[in-house]
Amino acid sequence: MIDGTNTYDVYASKTSGSGSTSNTKATSSSSSKESNGFASLDAEDFFSLLIQKMQNQDPLEPMDDSEFISQITQFTTLEQMRGITSAVELMAAAQASSTNAQAVDMIGKSVVTEGNVISLTGEGGTKLKYSLGDNTTETTLTIYDQDGDVVMTKKLGSLGSGDHSYQWDGKDSKGNAVDTGIYRYEISAKKADTAVDVTTYSIFSIDGVDFSGSSVLLKSGEIEIPVSEVQEIFQ
Q1: Distance between CA atoms of 42 and 1, rounded to whole angstroms?
Q2: pLDDT attached to residue 58
Q3: Which of 106, 120, 219 is nearest to 177 (CA)?
Q4: Neighbour tally for 6: CB within 10 Å
């Protein structure tokens, strides 16, 4: 970052104390702009100040060529930096607009995130998705309610490694339909006596989008999901 004070030194006039009234007036006008910060200076202002400096310089100590070139280079660099900043701001705005449009497009679709939350919204139950790190000889699904009580336990048997899914019908271990709401599930897996790594996923049906915060949130009933956590989208 270039220091503002040093930058303004570039534009400071080296007068001999004998400048004309017109030059003094022009310098006052340009200096007023300068005092407002670099953001108020454009190319015309810069060269006006530079010409004033050359007109008012001490004849016994004229501006050195290298100094002149340095000032031109510094101004050009600052102009380029300002242009880059504007371009980045435009890109950020475009990206935000694109993200918002994509989020709205997810309404009515289902999304997959890593987690173990189940959103039971009505009849027909809901789908669970999980991944096994190895073949298993014993695999068990356990579903809990929000109080941590076991709702249902299901033996899934021996399964191969990779992705799997299970369609929960929304009923407990006794076959009774449970209330709609939020549940949690676990998959325990073994290969002989060795535990197998399991990755669980949550599947949510998106019914709204929240733009009020610093990040876009997808809504599925009472649950809010950051767009950045979505791994898969499907109808």
Answers
A1: 19
A2: 58
A3: 120
A4: 9
Residues 6+ apart with CB under 8 A from 185: 116, 118, 128, 141, 142, 143, 144, 168, 200
Calpha distance 94→204 (Å, rounded)? 27
**In whole angstroms, what is the distance from residue 209 CA to residue 226 CA?**
10
Query: Residue 142 is encoded by which pair of tokens?
Result: 């356990």
Tokens (6 digits) for 134: 């190895």
pLDDT number for residue 124: 77
- The mean pLDDT values, 10 residues at a time, for the chain of 235 residues are 36 37 43 47 65 63 62 70 72 70 88 93 85 97 96 96 95 93 95 96 92 88 89 88
CATH topology of domain 110-234: Immunoglobulin-like (2.60.40)
Q: Where are the beta strands (DSSP E) in 58-211?
A: 110-114, 117-120, 126-132, 138-144, 150-155, 162-168, 181-191, 194-195, 198-205, 208-210
Residue type, 94: A
Q: Where in the chain is the domain with CATH 2.60.40.4070?
A: 110-234
Element (H, E) at 223: strand 223-226
**Rg of the chain, C-alpha, whole Å:** 34
Looking at residue 178, what DSSP letter applies?
P
Q: How far apart are CA 66 and CA 149, in angstroms?
A: 80
pLDDT score recorded for residue 46: 65
Ramachandran angles phi, psi of 73, nearest 5° = -65, -45
DSSP 38-93: GGG--HHHHHHHHHHHHHTS-TTSPPPHHHHHHHHHHHHHHHHHHHHHHHHHHHHH
Per-residue model confidence (pLDDT) at position 162 = 97
